[in-house]
Amino acid sequence: MRGIVYTGSGVEVTDELDVGLPGPTEVRVAMAAAGVCHSDLSVINGTIPWKAPSVLGHEGAGVVEAVGSEVRSVRPGDHVVLATLASCGTCRACSTGHPTWCVRTLGNVSQPFTYRGEPASNFAATSVFAESTIVKEVQAVKIADDVPFTSACLIGCGVLTGVGAVLNRARVRPGETAAVFGVGGVGLNVVQGLRLAGASRIVAVDTQPAKEELARRFGATDFVDASSTDPVAAVRAVVPHDPSRPSGGLGWTGGVTWSFDCVGHPSVLRTALDVLDWGGTALAIGIPPQGTEVAVDVNALAYVDRGLLGCRYGSARPHHDIPLMVDLYQSGQLLLDELVSETRPLEGFRDIVAGMEAGQLARGVLTF
Ligand SMILES: NC(=O)c1ccc[n+]([C@@H]2O[C@H](COP(=O)([O-])OP(=O)(O)OC[C@H]3O[C@@H](n4cnc5c(N)ncnc54)[C@H](O)[C@@H]3O)[C@@H](O)[C@H]2O)c1
Ligand SMILES: [Zn+2]
Ligand SMILES: [Zn+2]
Questions:
Q1: Are residues 149 and 224 in the same domain?
Q2: Tens digits of residue pLDDT in 5-62
Q3: Nearest Cα residue to atom 43 of ligand 1
Q4: Is residue 41 domain-shared with residue 117, that is, in the same domain?
Q5: Pseudo-torsion of CA 316, 163, 151, 49, nearest 10°?
């Protein structure tokens, strides 16, 4: 079958892949559509170290084609969105509704594939850049048959990650203010999550001025072109300090309540901290190389109740949040079709990567 394989030195679009039958608690899914997330690129460029050979892709939707003997929640023919969390369901984290904290969801690489006859690993427990893949039952979440696969697939990472960061991790309240750094597939979903939460100012920041139109369509009230403007001054100009509130001479006043680094660069995360008002919190969503550190004056946190939070996969509970995203889409509140900038067959993968690297896409989607 066809698929996209990370070889250790690059990437191959191949028809020399194979996948076996699902085990008792597994599901085999015929992929229909798969979004290309920056994390796939980060494997190829070495930012995220991964085993090779392995099948890339972790944002997908398709049709169940076979289920293991113990699977009860889906059956062949069901349309599903795949979640990357192969959570165990029984640990303390899972039992308290935090599957993103389940230790079974990190580093649980398996080898459901063969590539040129040799075992090949999965990526992010999903590997959706293949005509068929195998996941745990808990990862296959049934959706309505009438949601287009090219839109549904994006829920599997970009939408859950972005909207979830706002609703689950930050729990933004109506009237609060926010800045979003990097309005690609993840950042645009942070923007629309903020719109859903009722944020009063949503400042999108990107180094590609062409992103302004997209950002505003998803709910941004303001846009800062970080290639030509100092983003700290620009965000503070949008949400300035109220002169009637004394600042105690400490400075660091004005700015937003929430900021989201959807780029994954330490200078961006530092800027995300610098645009915060007193009491504000920055969320680290972008993934830089391992060992990356950010420097910050601890006083600028400790004196003024500022915070820094990590956020994995939108702190999502997939069996709650994926149906919620579908409901919000079907009621017209969540934009999914508008995230699909282009669709291409697997052979068009490199064109999508080029478009992403040029900052031109909301999402590029592969179809099978
Ligand atoms: N924490 C998680 O669970 C999680 C989940 C998915 C993706 N990610 C990470 O999130 C990041 C974004 O992923 P994506 O798929 O949205 O990427 P993307 O390529 O679609 O978008 C990145 C955007 O950032 C912009 N950008 C680049 N440098 C910038 C800068 N210095 N200042 C402002 N904007 C800048 C680009 O122009 C682009 O619009 C990646 O690091 C990815 O690995 C994390
Ligand atoms: Zn992703
Ligand atoms: Zn668990």
A1: no
A2: 999 999 999 999 999 999 999 999 999 999 999 999 999 999 999 999 999 999 999 9
A3: 39
A4: yes
A5: -60
